[in-house]
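seq as requested:
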Amino acid sequence: MIPLDDLIGCFSFVRENSIKSFVLLNFGGQAATHEWITPKGTDDERYSLRELFQFLRFKPVWTHFLTILLSTVGTSLSSGTGTFFYTYIMKDLKLMSGVSVVSLVITLLGMAVAPVLANKLGKKNVFLAGIIVAVGGSLIRFIDVRSLLLIYVGAVFAGIGGGFIGPLAYGIQADNTMYVQYKTGKRAEAAVASLSSFVSKAAQGVAGAIPGYMLAVTGFIGGAAQQPQSVEGGIIFCSIMLPLILCAAAGLVFGTLYPLGKKEVDEITLAIEQGVSTK
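struct tokens:
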């Protein structure tokens, strides 16, 4: 059995670092995309509820939302089942602290590099690269799901991917805002940001429910140090396999359907500055 003090300590550590990461991701994303969220153009920012829903029909908007939905469910699943994975698969919850530290440090480094790469290669390419790297980290884990070395390697890959995805999600959101303005003449920062936030929260809710159902279906025994083989399989599925599938799907959707590359964004920016729209 895991001592209660160790369990509480691990939860506190992960919670505190998660909060720090969230704040830094928000700050980094806003700092990296400040130039994009103040586009020049019409001052008419009013739009109806009907127009709000019409914004969703634009391909960049719904493609990005679907990508965020899939990737957020995947990453939230992986982090949310960590306690079960380290308790019942690795048999040592304390290992989670070291892996979390490595992932956090690498994420911060990825955040520092992402804007530089995005300016050269475009946000779409770097964002997609982040998803691919994160998927690669999950694939490596399948070589041996109980290998601590591969867990750390996977954490490095996940940190790089998260460092790219987090800040650039805001940049792409801002590009979508400019696209809406270009197509409609409406400044829709609030609408796009609110809808994006709703999608993220909904994804986290879905990710929070899945492990509970999976544990119930596989026969989880509360309080038992040793769980049935079916439970171990369910934990591995929720912490590695399902996140891999969802993040790979997110990469496929974004890579094949999202239309705004660096060239297109530059053209839209210039058109808005010149007062041109397709309204």
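The mean pLDDT is 83.
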